[in-house]
């Protein structure tokens, strides 16, 4: 499974609908300071359910919506869709392509979709658990995270290995069952 494409519309500096395609090889995104490179990784974490606006480098969730420029009015909503190639079936769904969408309006609440079907954030979390792709997965390693991983307590570091080994899903199901 690999990330094929990211579609961003109205998210942070991406006012116009923008498509960023990836392939199986290495892709690097380069550009001047402030051109929106980090906004792309923010978009990927956001669509996977990031709820902490601090992690998205903003003050309130509304700050992810394009806030306008001298020449352009602010937009009313932000939407991000990421497309995974799932021909190897790593994502437990019977589809060769899996698309995850999140949309937010200025009024607040986020909407989530899996292959255009409305769903809960919980469904997305469960789908990606143990794939390494979740918002806290090891597939996105931000500035600072490397230090954190190296200096973490052993138990925290263990979480990363457990996700890679594919057992987090069972642990979290067990914890959920114990809470009931
Ligand atoms: P650097 O090389 O410094 O890390 P970068 O390419 O990673 O830069 P980003 O941090 O992705 O740059 O983008 C910052 C830009 O995004 C700033 O110009 C900021 O004004 C713009 N920006 C952030 N949020 C919004 C928003 N809601 N509406 C419009 N523009 C936004
Ligand atoms: Mg940056």
From TrEMBL:
ATP binds at residues 32-39. It is found in: Cytoplasm. It comes from the Bacteria. Belongs to the SMC family. Required for chromosome condensation and partitioning. Contains large globular domains required for ATP hydrolysis at each terminus and a third globular domain forming a flexible hinge near the middle of the molecule. These domains are separated by coiled-coil structures. Homodimer. This is Chromosome partition protein Smc. It comes from Wansuia hejianensis. The chain holds residues 1 to 180 of 1192 of the full protein.
